[in-house]
């Protein structure tokens, strides 16, 4: 709902540390902020001049409420010269109008001063005449069980409510006039009775720490203190919301908030169509607590948990009640949305929000560190200018229509996007399935013809002063399908005959390379380290496979879901072998000590092998390759064409050019000789069948010195 | 009155003397202590501690008690109570010694008084019993019965005539106070003889202690926090009053009367003396001697002008006697007395620790002493005036009442007594009174308020249930929950009154509209008989007066009659006849007009029959018992009965 962040501006610092009492903030006379932090001092901050004007020192907590009111009452309105007066005003006992034990809260309604005190297991509301402070009346209510878990001494909310029919329409379109909340007449009558409405009485609402919300109409005389509702947790805040913008400026909803986050909305419910009884609706909901303080404006509840300031959008209309109460509870839970955070922490007290001329909501907060802060909320795009600009019904109609159109557009766009993304997913799934069929169907026909396959070359590279053998795999997509995002090339490299590991498995290394799309005809080249010099156990098989994760298909949101076990399709490609011959570092015969050059090795070996196979007519009778094995031992490969009848007498007789190739491997390392022997053998074996050539090996091993 | 006043004066003097003595004692002990530099014995230290506490309390008490806050007094009391307890525990920490017993029992007495003053009766009782047992162990008696009367009897017997006798008696006085405060009059009755002897012993030896003071060293005497003689006198009269109230409520009026009359000559504060007169009056009223009762009430008032209850009871007697003018006079006096700021009579020193209100807590007494609130009295006064041809006066009272209800002044309001009628009811009554006083515009304004406030709360459908047997209970319940029927009847009555106003102003068209509105509203009500479907109540369904159904039918009848009369004035005779004929059953008074319309239509014989029938009709109930706004309007067009009779005679000359 909210866009952007809150602007927090610190107006003043009061430097108090934690007190056992919850602080209390009140805006008096429009511009002055009254601040009571639970100490002996009461601060008066002039928001107009942005400075602390009066600091009142009082003697004890019990008397604070009385003292302050006395001071302000005596002063009447803010005295014009108070700003020029002393910065500190000492209130002595001569200001004391009355002393009362255990006063928790205080309220001035017209000419009546009310105190709420707790005495001997009962709550007592005492009414004083504010002119002579004579006790007019005292009403008590037996105290219930106080659920105080936080242990802070909280000021029970004490507010005054009037019916808007009983007050002249206030000039400003605010629901607050002379400190009283203004309720719509029907709700007022329902809640507080016809007598209070006829007597045009202000009603004192009182949220007790035992969770009860009580009310006392001041008129007619003799009214009793009655319980309106029970929150079953200490009441932290009572306010009125849902101001209609039809000029009368009355609230249609009473809001009460409990310490553990219970929110009760009290509204007049419209009856059903055919004469169903209208009644008062108590909508209960819960927000994450604990609630330290709160305030409401026309349609939102702001509250602080101490660690964050949150805003809750209150439902504008009371749910229409047609059916039985079961249905009502259903509506109830839908009615309260979840609050959204404003990212302002450590707010302990809030003053009612105001709207700036620009339409921004401004809150006045007191932080735990004793800072008086003005918190400016970002403008909500939905209600810029609302409700300070009451427009004509026609204008409103157009505005409503426009916003409705906007809503429909938004919804349509969202639906379109959803359909589009689903189509996308289906198309991708189709591609995946095609590739799956392609690769699994080809298993029978032989590996080489696979349209998607891997090639690999081994090469030596020097990394960090150390030579290492790198396998470069090239994935070749010659299929007509695109390998899209979500595919991964996996290569498992395992030594063909290594020393068995502890677990009985041959040690193998797995590499996976996720890639983002491989179109037909494109190749993907990946490199993976096989071994450092001297540590290899050749030959190594590299099994390549393509795998696809279904989670990738669903996108990041689904992938982030806990408990999702994504299915995975894994398709084997081909298996490559890296043997000693691949890993041979060829040095030129002339310069025996040339450092290995990548690329040259395979070329030289390829040439070497090819020459032995078909180069017999060239007349080259001898080819020699010098190199080093992975461990650095010098190796010499010699291929020699020999015409030796003894080699294959039978063939010699039949064919005119019987040829035999003698390959001599010379190295000081036995391992190198054996490895190369094996490598050469594997290469010869296949052509031998087809080309009917003959090979003879002589292995010469020379001990390295 | 004069006797009690005379008795009163030395009373306060004695209190002052006592305080002075106490001060002198403490000063003496201080000076002696300083002079001799001799460490006090434990015994003296305790006495000093006790006396300091007592003096501190008396100083606090003697200071301006009236301006002092109740709370502060209470805190002070709690502190003293705990201090006396601490001292008591110190003394009881060692085995009982004969020399210490007097001191010990005085401290126990002081602690006990503080506990009783805080209404901690159980704690006080156990304190007293334990202390007495402890002392009596020294005399070797025991074990003691757990039954309190037997216990105290044996206790008194075992101390005999020793010096301890007096101390134990003081404790018994406290026990007596506890019994009185907890309304255990039966126990007091059982111990009647013992208590009487205690009373005689203690109240006769008035100057004994002072006489003995020079003999014993002054510092050896532990002071009591409350004068014991004062206490016993208070107990004596309070017992008479409580017993009288109890007997009166049990119907033993003559028995109660004798006790109360003997009590009226006891030395006691005026308030209590006036109570005895008041209760005597009530006894006489019960014994059907209203004039003598009035005499007693007058005496009560003369003794204590604050005794509003006597005024109230006199008013009830006048009402019973049917003396309306006197009743109105009494109501007026009662109201003005209730509106007076309660003059705080200075209570004699030493008594306000245990005020008589603490000792007189019985239900029967408080119900006898209860007085309705000033507003409720004002309402009765206004209604009485309006109903008894003092309309102008009544209207003024009604306006005063409404002003009081709108003011934030909570003066003269207390929750006890019958609650005022609901505000709409009062508005309608005031409206009717205003109309009677020919102020239709004001009446309309009041009715408008009722209508605008109530109309939107009206339910769409109203079902009136047949009144149950337990009529009163359901009515009370209905008043708690603002029921739809009640609200609908208010709005209906408001429309009816407005119709009357228009009739008064001869605005027939408006009158017809308003009466129609009223009628249309009333037909929404369905009547539900047990076991039947809700139906529109027919006009002939008469029922007990005062019920909602009766009011409903009356409203219907009056609104139809009003509309019929309005139609008559605009010469819409057909409509007029229809309405009037319909209305006759619920409101027989419409018969005259019905006849008039018939006459004008030329159906003269029918008209005569109709008139004759109306004159011969005797109503089921008196009009006076109906709400004032349901009575026949006095201000509309009237038919002169003599004129009608003349017409009849002309028609059929014999």
From TrEMBL, chain A:
Q: Which domain of life is it from?
A: Eukaryota
Cellular component GO terms held in the UniProt record: Fanconi anaemia nuclear complex; nucleoplasm
The organism is Gasterosteus aculeatus aculeatus (three-spined stickleback)
Q: Name one GO biological process term.
A: interstrand cross-link repair
Lineage of source species: Eukaryota, Metazoa, Chordata, Craniata, Vertebrata
The identity of this protein, by name, is: FA core complex associated protein 100
Checking InterPro entries in the record gives: Faap100
Location of region: Disordered: 157-176
Which Pfam family, an example, fits this chain? FANCAA
Automatic annotation (TrEMBL), chain B:
The highest taxon in the source lineage is Eukaryota
Q: Which Gene Ontology cellular component terms are annotated?
A: Fanconi anaemia nuclear complex
Q: Which Gene3D superfamilies match?
A: Tetratricopeptide repeat domain (1.25.40.10)
The record's annotation in SUPFAM superfamilies points to:
TPR-like
Under SMART domains, the record lists: TPR
- Biological processes, Gene Ontology terms: interstrand cross-link repair
Among PANTHER family, the record links this protein to: FANCONI ANEMIA GROUP G PROTEIN, FANCONI ANEMIA GROUP G PROTEIN FAMILY MEMBER
Indicate what this protein is called per its UniProt record: FA complementation group G
**UniProt source species:** Gasterosteus aculeatus aculeatus
């Amino acid at each position: 709902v909210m866009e952007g962040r809150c602007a927090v501006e610190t107006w003043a610092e009061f430097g108090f540390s934690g007190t056992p009492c919850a602080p209390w903030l009140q805006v008096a006379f429009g511009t002055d902020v009254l601040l009571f932090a639970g100490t002996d001092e009461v601060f008066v901050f002039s928001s107009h001049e942005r400075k602390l004007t009066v600091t009142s020192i009082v003697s004890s907590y019990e008397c604070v409420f009385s003292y302050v009111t006395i001071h302000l009452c005596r002063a009447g309105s803010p005295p014009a010269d108070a700003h020029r007066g002393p910065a500190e005003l000492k209130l002595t006992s001569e200001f004391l109008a009355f002393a009362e034990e255990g006063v928790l809260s205080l309220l001035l309604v017209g000419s009546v001063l009310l105190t709420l005190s707790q005495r001997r297991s009962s709550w007592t509301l005492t009414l004083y005449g504010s002119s002579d402070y004579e006790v007019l009346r005292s009403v008590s209510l037996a105290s219930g069980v106080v659920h105080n878990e936080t242990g802070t001494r909280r000021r029970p909310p004490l507010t005054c409510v009037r019916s808007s029919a009983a007050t002249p329409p206030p000039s400003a379109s605010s629901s607050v006039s002379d400190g009283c909340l203004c309720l719509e007449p029907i709700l007022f009558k329902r809640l507080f009775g016809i007598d209070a409405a006829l007597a045009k009485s202000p009603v004192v609402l009182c949220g007790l720490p035992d969770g009860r919300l009580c009310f006392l109409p001041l008129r007619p005389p003799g009214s009793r203190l009655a319980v309106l509702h029970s929150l079953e947790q200490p009441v932290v805040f009572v306010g009125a919301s849902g101001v209609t913008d039809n000029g009368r400026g009355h609230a249609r909803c009473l809001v009460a908030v409990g310490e553990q986050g219970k929110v009760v909305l009290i509204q007049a419910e419209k009856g059903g169509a055919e004469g169903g009884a209208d009644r008062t609706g108590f909508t209960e909901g819960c927000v994450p607590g604990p609630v330290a303080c709160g305030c409401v404006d026309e349609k939102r509840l702001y509250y602080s948990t101490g660690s964050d300031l949150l805003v809750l959008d209150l439902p504008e209309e009371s749910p229409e009640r047609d059916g039985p109460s079961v249905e009502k509870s259903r509506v109830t839970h839908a009615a309260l949305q979840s609050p959204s955070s404003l990212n302002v922490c450590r707010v302990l007290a809030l003053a009612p929000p105001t709207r700036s001329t620009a339409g921004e909501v401004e809150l006045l907060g007191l932080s735990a560190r004793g800072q008086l802060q003005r918190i400016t909320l970002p403008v909500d795009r939905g209600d810029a200018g609302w409700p300070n600009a009451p427009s004509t019904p026609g204008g409103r109609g157009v505005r409503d229509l426009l916003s409705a159109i906007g809503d429909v557009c938004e919804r349509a766009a969202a639906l379109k996007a959803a359909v589009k993304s689903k189509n996308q997913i289906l198309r991708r799934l189709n591609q995946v399935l095609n590739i799956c069929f392609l690769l699994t169907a080809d298993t029978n026909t032989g590996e080489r013809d696979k349209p998607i396959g891997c090639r690999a070359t081994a090469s030596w590279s020097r990394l960090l002063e150390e030579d290492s053998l790198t396998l470069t795999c090239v994935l070749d997509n010659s299929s007509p399908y695109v390998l899209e995002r979500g595919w991964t090339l996996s290569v498992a490299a395992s030594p063909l005959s290594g020393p068995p590991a502890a677990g009985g498995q041959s040690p193998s290394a797995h590499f996976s390379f996720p890639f983002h799309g491989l179109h037909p005809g494109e190749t993907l080249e990946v490199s993976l380290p096989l071994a450092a010099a001297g540590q290899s156990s050749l030959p190594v098989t590299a099994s390549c496979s393509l795998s696809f994760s279904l989670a990738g298909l669903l996108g990041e949101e689904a992938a982030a879901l806990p408990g999702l076990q994504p299915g995975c399709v894994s398709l084997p490609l081909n298996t490559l072998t890296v043997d000693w011959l691949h890993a041979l570092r060829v040095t030129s015969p002339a310069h025996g000590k040339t450092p290995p050059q990548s690329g040259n090795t395979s070329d030289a070996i390829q040439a070497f092998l090819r020459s032995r196979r078909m180069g017999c007519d060239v007349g080259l009778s001898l080819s020699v390759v010098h190199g080093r094995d992975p461990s650095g031992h010098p190796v010499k490969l010699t291929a020699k064409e020999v015409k030796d009848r003894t080699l294959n007498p039978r063939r010699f007789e039949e064919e005119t050019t019987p040829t035999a190739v003698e390959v001599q491997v010379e190295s000081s390392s036995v391992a190198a000789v054996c490895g190369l022997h094996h490598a050469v053998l594997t290469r010869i074996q296949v052509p031998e069948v087809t080309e009917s050539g003959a090979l003879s090996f002589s292995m010469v091993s020379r001990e390295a010195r | 009155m004069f006797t009690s006043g005379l008795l009163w004066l030395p009373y306060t003097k004695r209190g002052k003397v006592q305080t002075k003595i106490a001060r002198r004692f403490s000063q003496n002990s201080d000076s002696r202590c300083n002079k001799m530099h001799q460490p006090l014995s434990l015994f003296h230290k305790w006495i000093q501690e006790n006396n300091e506490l007592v003096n501190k309390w008396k100083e606090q008490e003697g200071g301006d008690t009236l301006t002092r806050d109740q709370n502060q007094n209470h805190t002070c009391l709690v502190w003293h109570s705990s201090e006396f307890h601490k001292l008591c525990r110190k003394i009881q920490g060692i085995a009982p010694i004969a020399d210490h017993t007097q001191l010990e029992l005085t401290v126990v007495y002081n602690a006990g008084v503080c506990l009783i003053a805080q209404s901690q009766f159980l704690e006080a009782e156990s304190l007293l019993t334990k202390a007495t047992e402890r002392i009596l162990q020294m005399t070797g008696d025991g074990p003691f019965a757990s039954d309190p009367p037997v216990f105290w009897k044996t206790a008194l017997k075992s101390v005999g005539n020793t010096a301890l006798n007096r101390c134990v008696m003081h404790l018994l006085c406290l026990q007596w106070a506890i019994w009185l405060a907890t309304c255990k009059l039966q126990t007091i009755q059982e111990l009647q003889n013992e208590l009487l002897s205690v009373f005689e012993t203690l109240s006769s030896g008035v100057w004994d202690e002072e006489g003995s003071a020079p003999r014993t060293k002054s510092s050896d005497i532990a002071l009591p926090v409350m004068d014991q003689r004062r206490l016993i006198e208070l107990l004596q009269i309070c017992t008479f009053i409580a017993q009288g109230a109890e007997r009166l409520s049990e119907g033993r009026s003559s028995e109660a009367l004798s006790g109360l009359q003997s009590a009226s000559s006891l030395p006691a504060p005026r308030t209590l003396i006036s109570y005895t007169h008041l209760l005597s009056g009530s006894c006489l009223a019960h014994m059907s001697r209203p004039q003598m009762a009035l005499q007693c009430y007058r005496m009560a008032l003369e003794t204590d002008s604050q005794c509003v209850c006597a005024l109230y009871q006199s008013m009830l007697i006048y009402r019973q006697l049917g003396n309306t003018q006197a009743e109105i006079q009494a109501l007026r006096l009662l109201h003005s007395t209730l509106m007076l700021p309660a003059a705080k009579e200075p209570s004699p020193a030493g008594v306000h620790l245990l005020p008589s209100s603490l000792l007189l807590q019985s239900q029967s007494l408080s119900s006898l002493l209860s007085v309705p609130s000033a507003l409720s009295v004002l309402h009765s006064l206004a209604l009485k005036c309006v109903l008894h041809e003092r309309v102008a006066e009544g209207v003024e009272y009604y306006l005063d009442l409404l002003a009081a209800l709108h003011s934030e002044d909570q003066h003269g309001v207390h929750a006890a007594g019958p609650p005022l009628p609901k505000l709409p009811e009062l508005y309608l009554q005031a409206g009717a009174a205003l109309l009677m006083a020919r102020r239709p515009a004001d009446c309309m304004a009041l009715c408008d308020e009722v209508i605008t406030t109530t109309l939107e709360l009206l339910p769409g459908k109203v079902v009136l249930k047949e009144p149950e047997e337990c009529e009163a209970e359901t009515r009370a319940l209905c008043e708690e929950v603002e029921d739809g029927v009640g609200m609908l009847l208010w709005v209906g009555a408001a429309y009816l009154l407005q119709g009357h106003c228009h009739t008064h102003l001869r605005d027939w068209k408006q009158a017809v509209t308003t009466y129609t509105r009223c009628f249309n509203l009333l037909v929404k009500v369905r009547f539900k008989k047990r076991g039947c479907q809700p139906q529109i109540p027919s006009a002939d369904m008469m029922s007990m007066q005062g019920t909602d159904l009766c009011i409903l039918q009356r409203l219907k009848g009056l609104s139809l009659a009003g509309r019929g009369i309005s139609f008559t004035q605009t010469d819409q005779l057909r409509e007029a006849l229809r309405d009037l004929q319909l209305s006759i059953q619920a409101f027989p008074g419409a018969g005259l007009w019905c006849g008039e319309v018939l006459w004008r239509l030329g159906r003269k014989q029918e008209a005569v029959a109709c008139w004759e029938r109306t004159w011969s009709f005797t109503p089921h109930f008196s009009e006076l018992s109906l709400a004032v706004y349901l009575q026949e309007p006095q201000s509309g067009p009237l038919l002169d009965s003599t004129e009608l009779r003349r017409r009849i005679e002309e028609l059929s000359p014999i």
